[in-house]
């Protein structure tokens, strides 16, 4: 399959390199040509200077840009590739953003966090596909199955629920790690001492219902410990961390209130 990309960020970087093993990556376009050129060289492709320079002899165009740019990109690209299957990689943008301008539209959404310095295990990364045309859904299913053992034909609404849940499970969880590091850094304590706890927590949440795995002073209703922690944050002059601690503790208390009786 001949595939081109619009976007040269983290998602495009990982996806292009993964697809390169079985398919021909034809072109990469980015608003910053230098970024497109770097990814093009890594994927054995050609960097495109403009939308009008995109070659029409391709089977698939993947739009891997910010959600806010998707609508503008499809409007700009459609005249040059009117008959090509064009997909975006967003979890929070409906397929309708594409179908409003382009008939052969689809979605190829990897539920994963991407960093340029870390490799991705594509075989275990869930891939969610959607397409306006049945034959295009079959094409995306075949393509996705070459990468992952976990491919799901989900609707835009289902994908959006996953994207929101991922913000809690990934982005917010990582910020909690960041806050934890700030606390121990203040006392020159080695943050790596928390690694076994962090890994065990993630493994338990993956093995069972996270609600049943909840532990800690808020879950137990231990107001003495909560008050002590709150005082520590006050003395450290960290109203930001105190606010988050109070909010999360209150939510956990409410979630597990019947268990505390």
Automatic annotation (TrEMBL):
Residues 126-251 form the DUF2520 domain. Gene3D superfamilies: NAD(P)-binding Rossmann-like Domain, ProC-like, C-terminal domain. Residues 2-88 form the Pyrroline-5-carboxylate reductase catalytic N-terminal domain. Coiled coil: none annotated. Pfam families: DUF2520, F420_oxidored. Keywords: Oxidoreductase. SUPFAM superfamilies: 6-phosphogluconate dehydrogenase C-terminal domain-like, NAD(P)-binding Rossmann-fold domains. This is F420-dependent NADP oxidoreductase. It comes from Acinetobacter pragensis. The lineage of its organism: Bacteria, Pseudomonadati, Pseudomonadota, Gammaproteobacteria, Moraxellales.
